[in-house]
Design brief:
Length: 284
C-alpha cells in the first residue's frame, strides 16, 4: 500500500522549500508583493511537485536499473498513480494561479506547466535539457511578478534560471560521475549568479543582498569545488543537493534587492531547513 511517505519521496517534498522564493523574488522585483503572493507560491509548489512525479514516471524504466530504490521501481507507487498524481497536481497548480491571479497569472502558469512536462517527457535527456529546466525556473519567477511590472522581474528571472542551469547540468552526472571540466564551468557560473544577485540599485541597502548572495555562493560553491577535486557520482549528487537546498539564499538576496529586506531573510531561512529535511528525503 502506498503511504504518504512514499508520495513525499516521489515528489521530493523537501525540495519544494526551494520553490516559493521564486515567486516572492519575482513579486518583489515587480512591485507586486501582496495578498496574492502566498497563493501564487502555493501554485508554484503544486506545479513543482507535479514535475517531480512526472519525472519519475517518465524515468521509471531507467530508474529500475540505476535507482531501484525509488518509489516506482520498488513497487511502492504504481506508474498509474504517479502519472495521475502529476496530472492532478498540474491542474490544481494552474487552476489556483488562475483563480488568484487572473488572466495574467494564467498566461504564465500555463506555459510554465507545459515547459515542466516538456522537460520531463522530451528535453531532459537531450542537450537542451538544462536550458529547458532553466526556463521553468525563470517562468516561475515571472509568475510571482504577474501582478505588477513583469519586465522589472526579468533580471531576477534570468539569475534564478542561470543557477538552475548549473544544477541541472550537474544532475545529469549524478549516476556516472563527471569530469573536472563540468564543475569548473558550473562553479564559474555560480560566481556570476552570486555577483548578479548582490548588485542593487542606487539608494537601496546593498549589504543584505550581498551577504545572502555570499552565503549562497559559499555553500553551493564549496560543494562544486569538491566535485572539481573528486568528480565521483557521490560528490556530484552532494553538489546537486547543495544547489537545490541553497537556492533560497539566492532567492532571499533577490528579494532583498527588490526592497523587501526582512522578507528576503525569511526566504533565505528556508535554506538550512531544507538541508535538514534533505537528510530524511532526498531532494535529487
Amino acid at each position: 500500500m502506498t503511504t504518504l511517505g512514499d508520495l513525499a519521496e516521489l515528489v521530493r517534498a523537501p525540495a519544494a522549500l526551494s520553490v516559493p522564493g521564486d515567486v516572492v523574488a519575482g513579486a518583489a522585483a515587480a512591485g507586486a508583493l501582496g495578498p496574492r503572493t502566498p497563493a501564487l507560491a502555493g501554485a508554484s509548489v503544486l506545479l513543482y511537485w507535479a514535475g517531480m512525479a512526472a519525472n519519475d514516471w517518465a524515468d521509471r524504466r531507467l530508474d529500475a536499473e540505476e535507482r531501484p530504490e525509488r518509489p516506482i521501481p520498488s513497487g511502492r507507487v504504481t506508474p498509474a498513480a504517479a502519472v495521475g498524481l502529476a496530472a492532478g497536481l498540474t491542474a490544481a497548480g494552474v487552476g489556483l494561479a488562475a483563480v488568484v491571479g487572473g488572466r495574467r497569472a494564467a498566461a504564465l502558469a500555463v506555459p510554465l506547466a507545459a515547459t515542466i512536462w516538456g522537460y520531463d517527457l522530451l528535453a531532459k535527456n537531450t542537450a537542451a535539457g538544462p536550458a529547458v529546466m532553466a526556463a521553468c525556473r525563470g517562468l516561475d519567477v515571472l509568475l510571482g511578478a504577474s501582478g505588477g511590472r513583469v519586465t522589472r522581474a526579468l533580471p531576477a528571472a534570468a539569475t534564478v534560471a542561470a543557477h538552475t542551469w548549473t544544477v541541472t547540468a550537474l544532475s545529469r552526472r549524478e549516476v556516472t560521475g563527471a569530469d573536472a571540466t563540468l564543475p569548473k564551468w558550473t562553479l564559474a557560473g555560480t560566481a556570476v549568479v552570486a555577483a548578479s544577485a548582490a548588485v542593487v540599485a542606487p539608494r537601496r541597502m546593498a549589504a543584505l543582498p550581498a551577504v545572502l548572495a555570499g552565503w549562497y555562493a559559499a555553500r553551493y560553491g564549496a560543494a562544486q569545488a569538491e566535485v572539481v577535486r573528486d568528480p565521483s557520482a557521490g560528490r556530484v549528487r552532494a553538489a546537486v543537493g547543495a544547489g537545490i537546498t541553497g537556492l533560497p539564499a539566492l532567492q532571499g538576496a533577490l528579494t532583498a534587492r527588490g526592497g523587501a529586506g526582512l522578507l528576503g531573510l525569511a526566504v533565505a531561512a528556508a535554506a538550512p531547513l531544507g538541508r535538514r529535511l534533505a537528510r530524511k528525503v532526498s531532494p535529487t
